[in-house]
Design a protein that fits this description.
It is a single chain. The chain is mainly α. It has one domain (3-131): Nucleotidyltransferases  domain 2 (Four Helix Bundle (Hemerythrin (Met), subunit A), Up-down Bundle), CATH 1.20.120.330. 73% of the residues lie in helices and 0% in strands. It has helices at 3-30, 34-53, 63-75, 82-100, 108-131. The longest helix has 28 residues, at 3-30. It is globular and about 45 Å long.
Length: 143
């Protein structure tokens, strides 16, 4: 894959991230689908990590593998702050609870926290990609 191909794929993944955030915000404005809001918030963060991992040319097949690789390549390497790892783990755990724990209701407050956490996470990844010249500052940014 050429460096230009990598940039195109990064831009595509970030577009997916912002689309998921937009979905979550739309549902919140309608006060509907709090469970889906948590799901979309997680996927926004997930897609932004997939964009980031393109730099390393490593894309695991499973969600847990994506998170582990993010922690190893960017957090433990000191390239990004630990609070981003905490946010990603929280979003992943929240999404798993919402998707796999039956008869659990999701509150408005939980959904709002998921959106807030995801927005901050995605913006941080976007800023890093811009700083490293993989993404223009306004490219696919809808915030």
């Amino acid at each position: 894959m050429t460096p230009e191909d990598v940039k195109v794929l990064i831009a595509f993944r970030m577009k997916q991230a912002y689309e998921c955030l937009d979905d979550a915000r739309t549902l919140m404005a309608l006060e509907k689908g709090f469970r889906t809001i948590v799901n979309r918030s997680y996927y926004a963060a997930f897609y932004s990590v997939l964009a980031l991992l393109q730099i390393k040319g490593k894309i695991p097949r499973k969600h847990r593998g994506v998170i582990v690789l993010f922690d190893v390549e960017f957090i433990k390497a000191g390239l990004l702050p630990k609070n981003l790892s905490d946010a990603l783990h929280w979003l992943f755990d929240s999404r798993n609870k919402e998707d796999y724990v039956s008869m659990r209701s999701v509150s408005r407050a939980e959904a709002e926290q998921a959106i807030k956490t995801s927005e901050s996470f995605v913006q941080s990844i976007h800023a890093y990609l811009h700083k490293e010249s993989y993404l223009r500052i306004n490219e696919n940014k809808e915030c």
